[in-house]
Amino acid sequence: MEQSALHERLSRLPLHNPALAQHARERAERRQNRVADRITEFAGSMAFVYLHLVWFGAWIVFGVEGYPYGLLTMIVSLEAIFLSTFVMISQNRADAKRRVVADLAWQTVQDEDRENQELLRLSNQILELTQAIHEMASSKAADAG
Length: 145
Hints:
Layout: H1 3-11, H2 18-28, H3 31-43, H4 46-61, H5 70-144
Helix pairs in contact: 3-5
C-alpha cells in the first residue's frame, strides 16, 4: 500500500479511544505522573542518545578524569538505576492502559450478551406468534373445507 493511501486511511480513524483519553486525563491530573511521563518520553528518544554521546565524548576528550573513568561510571550507574525505575513506571502506565481497554472490552461483551439475549427472547416470541397464526389459519382452512 502506498504511504499516502495509508495516511489517508489512518486520518479517517478516530484519534483516541474514549476510555484511554479519560485515563490519560486522570493520569495528567497528578504532577508526579506528568514528570514521570516527560522523563520517560525523553529517555526513550534519540535526543537522549545524542545528549549522552556528546556528554561522554566531552568527558573523555576534555579529560575530566582519567581512565578507567570511575566518577563517570558511578554517574552512569546511578542514572541507570533511575532510568530503570522510570521504565517500570512506564510499564505500569502501559499496563494500566491495557487494563482500561480490557475493562471496556469486557463491558462491551456483557452489553452485547444482554442485547443478544433480548434479541433471542424477541425472536422466540415472533416464532411463537408465527406458529400461533399458522395454527389459527390452518384450523380456519380446515373448518372452511
